[in-house]
Amino acid sequence: MALNINGTTGISGVDGSVSAPAVTGTDSNTGITFPSADTIKFSTGGVERMQITNSGVSGTGIGAGKILQVVQATTSGTNNYASEDFQNTVVTVNITPVDSSSKFLIKSVLQYGVGSDDCAVSLNFSDSLHASGTTHPIAPMGDSGNGASGSNMGAYFGIGSFEDVNDLDNYWIGNLYGEFLYTPASANANQRAFTLMVRSSHARNVRFNMNAHYNAANPRDMRTTSSITVMEVGT
Q: Sheet harboring 17-20: ordered strands across?
C-alpha cells in the first residue's frame, strides 16, 4: 500500500506501525488532508488495512461505498402465513452497525408453496427500529392496497396467482429473490433486525420452505431453505 503525502514527513517504523510526527499536506491520491501529527498503523492479516489516528484528518474516500460487514441467517422452518396484511416471518437477521451512518443492502431468497392456486404473494422488508418494526415496510411499493378484495395489492417484490392452473398447490415450490439498498430514517449504531414480511391475496396460505401437499412419504414433497443477507455499506 503506497501513501503519498505532499508535505513534510518524519516517518519512523516501530513493530508494524509507523509514526509520522508533524505530518502536513494532502494525500495526492485521495485528497485526504493531514493537518498535524498523526499515527499511521498498518496490519496484514490477509488484508491490508490502514488506521489513521488524528481528530483533525479530513477528506473523503475512507469507507465510502465499502462493505463493512456481512451477516446472513437461514431457516428451514415450515411456517405458514395467511394474512391480507404484512406479517413478519422467520426469515430474519440481526446486525449491529460498525458505523452509525451506514446504509444496508438487504437480500433475501424465499422458497415457498401456496395453499391455493389463486394465492398471490406480496413481500417486503421490515426494520425493527423503524416505526413499530412489525408492520411498516421499508422498501417502496407500487400501490398501498393490501390483500383484501376490492383493490389491487402493493408489493416490493412477489408473484401473481396461478388461478385456473389445476392442482398447482399440490407439489409446486416457488423461489422469490429481492434486494433493497436501505438508508435508515434514524441512523444509529444500535442492533437492528431486518425481516422478510409477507401478505397474500384473500389471506390465502403461504407455506415457507415446503409445498402445500403434505406427504412426508413422497419425494416430490420437498423441504427447502430460505435466507436473508444484510451487507453494511459505509457512507
A: 12-14, 17-20, 38-44, 48-53
Which residues touch 91 (CB under 8 Å, ≥6 apart)?
73, 75, 108, 110, 195, 196, 208, 226, 227, 228
State which residues form the domain around 17: 5-53
- Cα–Cα dist 7/4, whole Å: 9
**Closest by Cα among 116, 150, 138 to 197:** 138
- Give the torsion sign (CA, 73, 78, 84, 85): negative
Answer whether 89's CB lies under 8 Å from 178's CB.
no
Per residue in 48-68, pLDDT tens? Answer: 444 444 444 444 445 678 999
* Cα–Cα nearest to 93, from 66, 75, 120: 75
User: Which DSSP symbol is given to 126?
Assistant: E
- Could you tell me if residue 136 is inside a domain? yes
Of the candidates 127, 146, 123, the one whose C-alpha atom is nearest the C-alpha of residue 136 is 127
At which residue does the C-alpha cell 488506521 appear? 51
Distance of CA 54 to the CA centre of its chain: 32
Residues 97 and 49 in one domain: no
Q: What is the pTM of this model?
A: 0.70
- Count of domains in the chain? 2
Question: Which 3 state secondary structure label does DSSP give 181?
Answer: strand
Q: What is the pLDDT of residues 16-42, one digit of tens each?
A: 544 545 555 555 555 555 554 444 444
Please tell me whether residues 137 and 216 are part of one structural domain: yes
